[in-house]
Amino acid sequence: MSLPDPNVIIENRSLEEKFDPEMRFRPLPPGTAWLVAGMLLALSFFHYYTAGFGLLREATHRGIHMAFVLGLIFLVFSAFKDDQNRIAPSGWWRPGSISLVDWALAVAAAVASLYVPWIFNELAFRVGNPSAIDVLMGTILIVVLLEATRRSVGWPLPVISIGVMLYAYFGPSMPGILQHPGASWSNIVNHLYLTSQGIYGIALGVVATYVFHYVLFGVLATRVGLGKLFIDLATVVAGRYAGGPAKVSIFGSALFGMISGSSIANTVTVGSLTIPAMIRVGYQRHFAAAVESAASTGGQITPPIMGAAAFLMVEFLNVSYQTVILAALVPASMHFFGVFMQVHLEAKRAGLKGLPPEEMPSAVKVIREGWQTIMPLAVLLIVLFSGFTPYLAAFWGITACLVVGASRVPAVTMGFLAAVIAGIAAGVLTQLVFSGPLLGFVLALLVYTYIKTDAGKALVLDLVDAFVVGAKYAIGVGAAAATVGIIVGIVTLTGVGFKISFIVTSFAAQIAQTFVDVLPVWLVDMKALTLFFTLLMTAVVCILLGCGVPTTANYIIMVTVAAPALGLLGVQPLVAHFFVFYYGVLADITPPVALAAYAGASMAGADPFKTGNTAFRLGLGKALVPFVFVYGPAMLLVTPEFTWPSFFLVVAGALVGILFLSAAFAGYALTRLQTWERWLISIASLPIIAPDPLTTLIGLALASPVILSQILKARSEPAPRPA
């Protein structure tokens, strides 16, 4: 195995830190850096060990996780942006270049986080009747949690949390339906701190139990070469065709998204190779950046990782992880299909070529050199779909990364895979008698690799560094999840979620009534219109909230507040969860805060706002598909409405509609589209996408003049010449 290019890793990290608040780490002097690295390594090993050998008691596991996460944030993230680009001078007031205030906050965070597990045996007698020390510790944790979240993910989430706490406290002063009896500070702290409905709730539990492990797996899988294999395979498949690098970007981002789960990380990793190639073959700079960022947002909706949302759905909906993965398959494919068709038609319109033969990798060479790197993902999926827990699957996937990283001997790689499959078949995968000797072998392999050569030593150190980096990448989402617990806790304490749902549905009904009053009765349906406007308002709020709040936090907030509104209108919980999740992800390419698009623009030297607008247009399939699976739940495969005829009707309509809309945006179908053709085919695409046979036929009838015109012109016009 060859080491990753250090220059590429450093460049990618700097871009991620520039555009992702969760990765803006402050520089530290060597001594402090080693101390912090040791703590990050301990956090990774804690989660790795418990995933394989059993989780601790719920409160203890979450408390230890949060103590590490919050404590590390005060050491890793500076209080002010000015301190992010330089090592602060040391002194008695700043030991190790970290101020005494930050050290004190780190200690306070750790103590307050561990207090609840410490008093756990007495907790049943203290919930509802907190002592003065309980309120003090809870207040400390809330304060340090808000500050840690501000440093790691920005202001919006803490501001929202403070707002909802003020709402809980000043309930009697609220207007109209929002009024409630109010709660004292002691009651607020009791609910948020001592119960599982607040900070120590589902959101923190999912991050501590699932998300951390998959972030770590993604970093390790990338380090051992799986990301490079995906990009090379995408180049082999699509590189030679019209606009080849753009299609490589789409396929590569789809594959890399399986292990990344991050829009920005996906953009800078895949884009470092594809964006320059797209510009080189003739794409405009802003379009090249937009293609990569639009494709990369698919990383959060592509199974099996899907950021943190998949694991949260498992807990919220009480369904299996396999159910969520199956439900995500077709909608994710629709997103990539929409981006692909716009890229393809843009290339045909401009007459762009693919990569020259000398830049095309050999398929045989790519597979021969990289096939073993697929083994960790194969192990993860085999364990997962054998009915084991997601964290156990991540444990064996991480272990497989260590095997591949330490050895590229086919017999060793395949032997490990065979051993895992045998352990599953024999029913001993979770038993120490099986895992102990196998892990002992992996450890011996790492030691042998380390002492064998200098190259082997570098390989093992790179794997250790991946454990450190994986933990560093995960602490921001850990703080955000705990802070979202405040919002969820206040919603359950005050019941404001159902009040907001009532307000939203009532307002949507008023808008719907306006249309019912002016349109023919046979053309409109009051219930359908109310649902449509509720979905529209929910989508807008998701996008706006996503402009300043991480996707995971956005999803939890909207599920807590908006999903009940959709439920009142008959939308199934799984469908409602997917709807708000998709629109939360869309914020990454929606101006004015399109972070993935801005990262791509920086790499391409393009105008950020223009890139964001183009990326949103390219990702329009993702914006339309959620409406499709609300009205046609069969698309999600696992809903009660699923039948093969209904599934094919919904999917075929969506594919044709997205194809027509892509042609309208690109200005090209079989030949260049005239203005009237673009408008007509745009209008026709919407009823075609709607999952109803009658509307689909109406849409096709509207589009038929354009189809006929294009066929006739294609027969008479020569193909466009290369630009």
TrEMBL record:
It comes from the Bacteria. Residues 141-639 form the TRAP C4-dicarboxylate transport system permease DctM subunit domain. One of its GO terms (cellular component) is plasma membrane. The keyword Transport applies. It is found in: Cell inner membrane. Keywords: Cell inner membrane, Cell membrane, Membrane, Transmembrane, Transmembrane helix, Transport. It is a multi-pass membrane protein. NCBIfam families: TRAP_fused. This is TRAP transporter permease. The lineage of its organism: Bacteria, Pseudomonadati, Pseudomonadota, Alphaproteobacteria, Hyphomicrobiales.
